[in-house]
Amino acid sequence: MAARPRALRLAVLASGRGSNLQAILDAIATGTLDAEVAGVFSDQPEARALQRARDAGVHAEALPATGFPSREAFDAAFFARVDAVRPDLVVCAGYMRIIGAPAVEARVGHMLNIHPSLLPAFKGLRTHRQALAAGVGEHGASVHFVTPDLDGGPVLAQVRVPVLAGDDEAALAARVLAREHPLLLAALRLLAGGRVALRERVVHLDGAPLAQPLQLTANDGFA
Ligand code: GAR
């Protein structure tokens, strides 16, 4: 992605609470992220994310999947709405529907997801439960480019948190979520600065292939 003359236009997809969306909106409002949320889109009409968007004066709409004959038919209708706001980048921030391969392939390199695990560990749902069941000492979150391989796209950046004795799913989820927000913002700043591109499905930073995911440090920069 070359350095851009205008703010990065984001379309944010969210199915629920929308705390990652809120982090984006707040960072834009305070001038710490040079981007614009062009629209927020949900498959869940009651998603709190939609109200957060409207409260910030951002276009928000929901399209439930019920009644569509196939995943592809829903995706086509949903992404027609997303495309209408002409995003540079689609950010899946708690979007819990699987996106079919045709819609993903059309946007490879232009769609990011934040996933609550240190990918490739613990893909899919209930990642905190998976981490506790596996007995790992470290857990975290990843920001990756979306490809048709579910939660398997190239990882741009990660944040690590400890798993502590006595953790339950809720405690671990809260510790991870608190670090997801700065992780997502730091990743988006790199994209907004035109510093990141996906080439041949390999993440490039400042024109060079990234050998391993960037790691968010305690002061919210990258190591
Ligand atoms: C976040 O923890 C995000 O990583 C996760 O959903 C949560 C959404 O929280 N995403 C996934 O599990 C995607 N498979 P939020 O709605 O408060 O941003």
In short:
The protein is of the alpha/beta class and 223 residues long.
Key attributes of the depicted protein:
223 residues; 11 strands; alpha/beta; Rossmann fold; 8-stranded mixed β-sheet; 3-stranded antiparallel β-sheet; globular; binds glycinamide ribonucleotide; 6 helices
Number of strands: 11
- Largest sheet geometry: 8 strands, mixed
**CATH class, anyone?**
Alpha Beta
- Determine the N-to-C terminus distance: 22 Å
SSE topology string: EHEHEHEHEHEEHEEEE
Bound ligands: glycinamide ribonucleotide
Overall pLDDT level: 97
Q: What share of the residues lie within helices?
A: 25-40%
State the CATH superfamily name. Answer: Formyl transferase, N-terminal domain
Number of helices: 6
Regions with pLDDT < 50 over 5+ consecutive residues?
none
Radius of gyration, in angstroms, nearest whole number: 17 Å
Q: What sort of overall outline do the alpha carbons produce when their principal axes are compared?
A: globular
How many structural domains can be distinguished in the coordinates?
A: 1
Strand order of the largest sheet: 3-2-1-4-5-6-7-11
Question: Based on helices, strands and strand pairing, what is the structural class?
Answer: alpha/beta
CATH fold call: Rossmann fold
Provide the CATH architecture: 3-Layer(aba) Sandwich
Strand fraction: 15-25%
